[in-house]
Amino acid sequence: MPVPTSKHGRPMNPLEWAILLTLSAIWGGAFFFNAVAVAEIPVFTVVVARVAIAAVVLYSLLLLTGRSMPTDRRAWAAFFGMGLLNNAIPFSLIVWGQQHIASGVASILNASAPLFTVFLAHLLTDDEKLSGGRLAGVVVGFVGVAVMIGLDGAQALGAPVLAQLACLAAAFSYGLAGIFGRRFHAMGIAPMATATGQVTASSILLLPMMLFVDRPWQLPAPGTQAIAAVLGLALLSTALAYILFFRILATVGATNVLLVTFLIPVSAILLGIAFLGETLQVRHLAGMALIGAGLAAIDGRPWRALLGRWPGARERRKASRPGAG
């Protein structure tokens, strides 16, 4: 998921850590639910069911809390743009990709989304240019992606490699959504309304594709597990996830929320191994480590913490400040 930009990032309290861990678990669970659902239900039907059910739930919550949706054309044009970039394109690509690769691999590739966000922010914004540390983080992260795909795989563009590229394209779309989504704050649209508007818009965008490509009325009825997986995607990994995401974003800022990207593959990998019999190759784990190192360099806090523990580091930083001594 894309991480909107923010300047503040204070240490989190135990409740905020609990929310963050819960969010990472249910977003990691999305890859597990995708794998179960797509075994019986076509791609667009899975995605439309996910966003449409989530839209109904989020609309209901808005009504229960006495809030309303914007009705002007400009707001809904923005909702459709966000729904395309943040839901319709990435959800469809990831679900398609998971027909050919393990959910853990898909989740690791998805973790590259902040790398794209930082790179695209440098190109498309005036206030978020790459620093040396961020550039190094982006380079290291993309080396991790290359390691995951592997030279042998890249030379033989079979279904598994195309599926990995589809997940990378989804991460790129998330990166664009992270930049595009900055406009909602400037437009004065509340985060819950943004979440509701984008899943509503993506439902409308994908419904014709589902009807034309999947023709769900001609399909056999899915089993209980597939239906439960779709409900898990809609209720947990979309509706509840957005509620938690905007709750923690409002209190601790996007810098701390970035930590969720480190944690999503953990739950996705564990669920895939425990319930789907998936395994990961050494290059996948090496790629995950490099992507994590890249994200750490972008975030900066692990590096600052390491320097802070290095003997004499604090004194050197003090001495280097203007007017020190």
Low-confidence runs of at least 5 consecutive residues: 2-9, 319-325
Sheet having the most strands: none
Please provide the ordered H/E string of secondary-structure elements: HHHHHHHHHHHHHHH
Q: Any idea what the shape is?
A: globular
Distance between the termini: 46 Å
Helix content: over 70%
Report the mean per-residue pLDDT as an integer.
86
Number of strands: 0
What is the radius of gyration computed over CA atoms, rounded to a whole number of angstroms? 20 Å
Strand content: under 5%
Written overview of the protein:
- It contains 15 helices and no strands.
- Helix content is 77%, strand content 0%.
- The protein starts with 13 loop residues before the first helix and ends in a 5-residue tail after the last helix.
- Residues 2-9 and 319-325 have low confidence and may be disordered.
- With 325 residues, it is an all-alpha fold.
